[in-house]
Write a structure and sequence with these properties.
single chain, alpha+beta, 7-stranded beta/alpha barrel, Beta-galactosidase, Chain A, domain 5, 6-stranded antiparallel β-sheet, 17 helices
Length: about 800
């Protein structure tokens, strides 16, 4: 040992290493899918935990440096295991948790930045209460994903979690600062989270082993051709293997220190080298660490858990690390746009949840809490970072690829169905016993105006108009033809068509949370067109390019609003991946971007205009080489500075990479305020380091403030936006020249793994723009803009009390 310490510790350099301790975290990176079907991945992680528990129990009598340690990266599989485990097995887990050999991360899994405020509450309270209390997770782990919303950090702080360990995968993105590094992350309310910005979650092996053990990119668990390493095949505990690993480690540490790493402790993580993701524990790792330390090699190795490692590091350096603040935006969020239909279903579910919780239907019943929790858990699982198979792009039609996408998207569709059912039950429980008629409810937190619609046949009686029950005011009804359900398929169907018989439309103006009772009437009542109307400027095709109300100094939007454009690739996915990864100088990347990508905007045909009495409606077909059919409809409110754009498209089927956008131009010369998870931020200005500025995951709105009023843009279906321009794969950092331009990302299949390659059929997207002299609560206004009035038809007969009791109970 003396001979070893004299020279080999330092290699060719006589200077001692600055790093004196390497803390090794051993875990399995949790992908709910990717390597296997999501349900299989969850089952595997339960088996991994059993291995870890038994390995910890087997080594608990060894000296501390030789004991097996394991960190369960995510709460989800531990919670799955806990709910199924026997009392005796639970005691085994708690025994090794108390001994400090097993630790549990505080997040349910690695999460994409699509959650709203309610979902984050559900996420941080994921596990069974007795498990949370017993395991006491103290460190949040966010691996792989290139972002970490402040909404998550603030809720973790609410629950006493003050530390985070983040191991970003740099592919198509990267960390906000050079790493490894530590910093305090300050929240908008002044609280701080201690963050260890680690190297990639699987790079710990690289300190001791050169090259890869993997012989396939991501073999399935069923695969008998590829396997995890066995004891001695990597990280062997014999002296020759350990000394070879030590020489490699010293070389790597020299490089790390030459890059400026200043601390005496490094925290790194090792996953089993079979696939990197969803891998079992390697119990022999404890033997390797024990042999290293028995040989007296430096730096010392400590096989430990995330809580022990990060807390120890904070004690050592917490007073000297920098403090940063800003939203930690995610480079990988654009992949969610590869499944726009499921994404829209998840947004519909969120709206239905908000409506079900509205006081318009009275206090939310305690019996409904379980149903609500199940919906939120489905949504959070949909927004877990794994979107599909590792082969989802190269093999888009493979059975495994389709199976993984089916399991993934099913979370969104189940949440949608359950949320709509919960809302329907809330509505009927509150209103079904009311007198005969049409009951229209607004669940929005602000006053709303708009169309309430219902199928004529559903009334089960004839009527020509309606009247308000309380005032007797006559209410005209307009009848539109529905789509014949037995007619040949129309894709896309005409905008505004409903798959029913004739549809009745009624204009309503409702206070927040109000319900109006409309009685049937046989008198004919003509719709009277409002005399007040905004000034509309049309282009040569009859499409509005500006709308101005008398109280406004600037129009609601500018020319170019409502345009459809595609970024089409002239290069393969490999080239796009390198471009997205930021290789080369900024100048070279921009040259490649101009070479690889081309922007094509849809050409409009002539527009049709209709005056509904309350609104002005403009409908226009679009032509684009990437679309089979496309149509857009702009509805302009007469009395209110507001417009709604409905865009319906059908792509030409193709797995070739492209990004599709809807374009909006607002008369603002300053950056908008966006929001993620209920926490507002100004892009470019309030971001963490070099986090993503190409696109932003939002709560579905953008607020633009101006000298003469405020504009709010709201998206019903597409929460991913770009500011200033399309910015696809641009890696922009500077503030855009046109900050009033916002583009909704409709579809993106430019990835080469994990996300979907194709989305067929009709896609529909709705957007609203409103102006107010001052917008103090953009959350409430956005909810009001995308909330449609709810209609309930009641007959004269009283409801059956047994049906009420059992069918309508949440």
């Amino acid at each position: 040992m003396a001979a070893l310490l004299a020279a080999p510790v330092c290699g060719s350099d006589d200077a001692p290493l600055r790093v004196r301790t390497i803390d090794i975290l051993h875990f399995s990176h949790t992908d709910v899918g990717y390597t296997d079907q999501p349900s299989i991945a969850r089952e595997l992680h339960g088996r991994f935990l059993d291995i870890a528990i038994d390995a910890a129990l087997k080594t608990q009598d060894r000296p501390p440096a030789s004991r097996f340690h394991w960190t369960a990266e995510s709460l989800l599989p531990v919670d799955d295991w806990w709910r199924a485990a026997s009392a005796a097995r639970r005691k085994d887990l708690l025994r090794v948790v108390r001994s400090g050999q097993i630790d549990v991360g505080a997040l349910p899994f690695n999460v994409a930045p699509l959650l709203d405020a309610r979902e984050w509450d559900a996420a941080v309270d994921w596990a069974a209460e007795d498990l949370r209390r017993a395991a006491a997770p103290a460190v949040a782990i966010q691996n792989d994903v290139n972002g970490f919303p402040r909404a998550a950090a603030m809720r973790l702080l609410d629950r006493g979690v003050r530390h985070a360990f983040v191991g970003i995968n740099p592919y198509r993105g990267g960390p906000p600062f050079p790493r490894p590094a530590a910093f305090w992350w300050r929240m908008p309310d002044g609280r701080r989270l201690f963050v260890y910005l680690a190297e990639h979650y699987g790079m710990g092996l690289n300190y001791f082993h050169e090259g890869e053990w993997r012989t396939a990119w991501s073999p399935r668990a069923r695969d008998g051709l590829h396997r995890p390493p066995r004891p001695g095949e990597i990280l062997g505990s014999d002296e020759t293997s350990v000394r070879k690993a030590h020489a490699r480690c010293v070389e790597q540490l020299r490089r790390l220190e030459a890059g400026g790493y200043p601390y005496a402790r490094v925290i790194t993580s090792i996953t089993n080298a079979w696939r990197w993701d969803n891998d079992p524990p390697l119990p022999a790792l404890a033997d390797f660490v024990g042999a290293w330390n028995r040989l007296g090699l430096e730096p010392a190795l400590r096989l430990t858990t995330v809580t022990a490692a990060v807390r120890e590091l904070e004690r050592e350096i917490g007073g000297e690390v920098p403090t940063h603040e800003g939203e930690w935006t995610d480079w990988w969020a654009d992949g969610a746009a590869s499944t726009p239909r499921a994404l829209a279903a998840s947004r519909l579910a969120k709206r239905a949840v908000a409506a079900a919780l509205s006081p318009a239907f009275g206090p939310f019943p305690p019996d409904g809490r379980r149903a609500l929790d199940e919906i939120l858990r489905e949504l959070v699982l949909f927004e877990e970072h794994t979107w599909g198979s590792s082969d989802s792009l190269p093999l888009p039609d493979a059975l495994d690829t389709q199976g993984q996408l089916a399991e993934k998207t099913l979370h969104a569709y189940r949440a949608m169905a359950r949320a709509e059912l919960l809302l329907g039950r809330r509505q009927q429980a509150a209103l079904a016993a009311r007198p005969e008629g049409v009951h229209v409810t607004s669940t929005a937190p602000l006053p709303v105006s708009g169309w309430a619609r219902f199928p004529v046949r559903a009334a089960r009686r004839s009527f020509s108009s309606l009247r308000e029950a309380t005032t007797g005011r006559e209410v005209p009804v307009s009848i539109a033809k529905g789509v014949d359900r037995l007619a040949p398929s129309q894709a896309p169907a005409p905008i505004g068509a409903v798959g029913e018989s004739d549809v009745a439309s009624v204009w309503v103006e409702l206070p927040a949370g109000a319900t109006v009772h409309l009685e049937y009437d046989d008198r004919e009542v003509e719709t009277t067109a409002l005399t007040e109307r905004p000034e509309v400027t049309l282009d040569d095709r009859g499409w509005p390019v500006a709308v101005l109300w008398p109280e406004m100094a600037e129009p609601l939007f500018l020319e170019g609003t409502g345009a459809f454009l595609a970024i089409q690739a002239a290069a393969g996915r490999d080239a796009l991946g390198k471009l997205a990864g930021g290789q080369g100088s900024a100048e070279e990347r921009e040259r490649q971007r101009r070479e690889y990508l081309r922007e094509v905007t849809a050409a409009p045909e002539g527009a049709r205009a209709v005056d509904t009495g309350h609104t002005l409606v403009y409908t226009q077909a679009l032509w684009h080489p990437r679309l089979r059919r496309a149509e857009r409809r702009l509805e302009v409110w007469k009395r209110e500075p507001r417009a709604r754009l409905l865009l319906r498209i059908e792509r030409v089927p193709s797995v070739d990479p492209e990004v599709l956008y809807a374009d909006f131009r607002l008369p603002s010369e300053d950056l908008p305020t966006l929001s993620n998870g209920g926490v507002p931020f100004v892009p470019f200005r309030e971001q963490l380091g070099e986090s993503c500025r190409d696109h932003f995951s939002t709560d579905g709105w953008a607020l633009f403030r101006g000298a003469h009023g405020d504009w709010l843009w709201a998206s019903r279906d597409a929460p991913l936006v770009a500011v200033g321009g399309p910015n696809a794969l641009a890696r922009v950092q500077s503030v855009p020249a046109r900050p009033g331009r916002v583009l909704a990302m409709l579809f993106n299949n430019t990835w080469d793994t994990n996300f979907a390659a194709e989305e067929k059929g009709t896609l529909e997207f709705q957007f609203d723009i409103a102006w107010r002299p001052r917008i103090d609560d953009p959350f409430a206004l956005a909810e009001a803009l995308v909330s449609d009035p709810l209609v309930l038809l009641t007959p004269a007969a009283a409801p059956d009390p047994l049906v009420q009791k059992h069918l309508l109970r949440p």
